[in-house]
Design goal:
CATH topology of the largest domain: Rossmann fold
Strand content: 15-25%
CATH class of the largest domain: Alpha Beta
CATH architecture of the largest domain: 3-Layer(aba) Sandwich
Structural class: alpha/beta
Radius of gyration: 19 Å
CATH superfamily of the largest domain: HAD superfamily/HAD-like
Number of domains: 2
Oligomer: single chain
C-alpha cells in the first residue's frame, strides 16, 4: 500500500515525459504499442508535455510518431540538436544545436578509416553511411546491424570519410560499429581520449561521438529551464547508456525490462519491455496514477 501511495504522489507532480525511442518506446519493428500511444495521448490531454530524446537524426524519426498527438519537442543526435514542434504538420523549429569540433571529427575519422570499421556521419538532420557497408547490410552480410533500420534511415555515399571531412564544421554525431566486443574494447580508450568531445553508446556494438558536453541530459536540462520544469516534475524512460544522463535528471526514472544493466542500476523503476508496452505501463502508473 505504501508503494502505491508513493506512486500516486509522484503522478500528481509530473509535467514532462522524456522518452528514448529505439528499444524503449518503439518495438523492434519501429511501431508504437497502442497502450503506449493511448497513455501518452491521455497525458497530453491533461497538459503534460512529451519530449522525444533519441540518438536518431531528425530525418530518421519514424512515421509511427504521428500516433502521438502531444509531442512538443524532439531531442536528436543524442542532444546535438533540439527542435520544437509548432503544431501538427508544421516543420520542426531548431532551437539549439551544438556540433562536434572539426579537430575531433578529423581525429575520429582517421582512427576509423585506418581500421576499416563501419562508420556513419550525422549532419544537417540526416545520417550517412559508406556505400560499401550499406550494400553489405542490404545483402544481409552484416549481422550486428538491423537491415530494415539501416535501409530506411541511412543515406549511402561513395566515400564516407571524405564526405565527413568535407562537412566537419557541421557534424552532429559520429557513429562507429564493431564486429565484436574485443574490437570495441580496444577502441574505447582511443575514442575516449579525443579532446572536446563526448563518447557514448546506444547499442552494444557501437560508440557514438558528440560535441563537448553534448548529451540527452544536457539537452533536456535546456528544455526544462525553458519550460520551468523541475526534476520532480519529470519522468524519463530509456534502455541504453546514452540515456543515463537524461534518467539521472528525472524524479521518476524508468528502465524498460530489456534495458542494459548499467541503465537499470540508475533507475527508480523497471517496467515491462519495449515489446510489451513498458512505456505505456509507466505513464499509466507514474503520470496518470492508474
Amino acid at each position: 500500500m505504501n508503494e502505491e501511495k508513493q506512486i500516486m504522489n509522484k503522478a500528481k507532480h509530473i509535467k514532462m515525459i522524456a522518452l528514448d525511442l529505439d528499444r524503449t518506446t518503439l518495438r523492434e519493428d519501429g511501431t508504437i504499442p497502442m497502450r503506449t500511444a493511448d497513455a501518452l495521448n491521455r497525458a497530453g490531454e491533461q497538459g503534460i508535455q512529451t519530449v522525444i530524446a533519441t540518438g536518431r537524426v531528425l530525418d530518421a524519426l519514424p512515421e509511427s510518431l504521428s500516433m502521438l498527438k502531444y509531442v512538443k519537442y524532439y531531442i536528436c543526435s543524442n542532444g546535438a540538436a533540439v527542435f520544437r514542434l509548432n503544431g501538427r504538420g508544421s516543420c520542426p523549429e531548431l532551437l539549439h544545436e551544438k556540433c562536434l569540433e572539426p579537430e575531433a571529427v578529423e581525429t575520429m575519422t582517421d582512427l576509423v578509416k585506418d581500421a576499416g570499421l563501419m562508420f556513419e556521419s550525422f549532419t544537417g538532420g540526416q545520417a550517412y553511411i559508406g556505400k560499401d557497408y550499406y550494400e553489405k547490410v542490404e545483402k544481409g552480410l552484416i549481422m550486428y546491424r538491423g537491415r530494415d533500420y539501416v535501409l530506411k534511415t541511412r543515406r549511402p555515399v561513395d566515400d564516407i570519410f571524405g564526405f565527413t571531412i568535407k562537412h566537419r564544421d557541421k557534424i552532429e554525431n559520429l557513429n562507429v560499429f564493431f564486429p565484436n566486443q574485443e574490437e570495441k574494447n580496444r577502441f574505447q580508450p582511443l575514442l575516449a581520449a579525443i579532446p572536446d568531445a563526448t563518447l557514448t553508446s546506444s547499442v552494444p556494438s557501437n560508440y557514438e561521438l558528440g560535441g563537448k558536453g553534448v548529451s540527452k541530459g544536457a539537452a533536456l536540462r535546456f528544455l526544462m529551464d525553458l519550460e520551468g520544469i523541475s526534476s520532480e516534475e519529470l519522468m524519463a524512460a530509456g534502455d541504453s547508456p546514452n540515456d543515463i544522463t537524461m534518467l539521472e535528471l528525472a524524479g521518476v526514472s524508468v528502465a524498460v525490462d530489456n534495458a542494459e544493466e548499467s541503465v537499470k542500476q540508475v533507475c527508480s523503476y523497471i517496467v515491462s519491455s519495449n515489446e510489451d508496452a513498458g512505456v505505456g505501463e509507466a505513464v499509466e502508473k507514474f503520470v496518470l496514477g492508474e
